[in-house]
Write a structure and sequence with these properties.
The chain has six helices and six strands. Helix 1 packs across helix 4. Helices cover about 35% and strands about 15% of the residues. Keywords: Nucleotidyltransferase, Transferase.
Amino acid sequence: MIAWSIEAAKASGCFDQIIVSTDDTQIAKVAQQYGASVPFMRPAQLSDDYTGTVPVIRHAIKWLEDNGQSVAQVCCIYATAPFVTSEDLRRGHDSLMHEGCSYALSVTSYAFPIQRAIRISGQGRVLMFCPEYFQTRSQDLEEAWHDAGQFYWGTVQAWLEETPIFGEGSVPVKLPRHRVQDIDTQEDWVRAEWLFKALRGQGV
């Protein structure tokens, strides 16, 4: 799966270097086979299930700078984003360069108004998160967006200062919902396979 992210990065023409940060030798080998470099192995303290994106990218930038390489803009592309495209990466790069922002990140819209979301109580009952919107028509509610989990363009200053990605210093790169599927669970994987087949069937 990581090959799709590497190939999209290569096709975008945006990058002087495509680096994979990993602590896994098998992933490193696959990354190199597809044209990425693995100049360092990620340290254990940045390789657990709780480490965020920003510290990982900050580590990569610091490693490059400590080894005599200057960096201006950096894009984090997730390996679990099989629908990332070179065109979207270019749009993100253009936004970062021309919008005066700290980050440009992929986003997509929620399929249903979040204001009418429900939860299930400990007693098995249905409750609204925002009951004040019970009488509001769905079409009258503000559209909501979420992180598409594909890529984050950022300035070196923003990464090094660990500026929060979700804030007023960031601009969205909007993606259609049918090209967004983060993969964290088996169910995500199955849905991604169906989406992949559908998109390939349409020549996308």
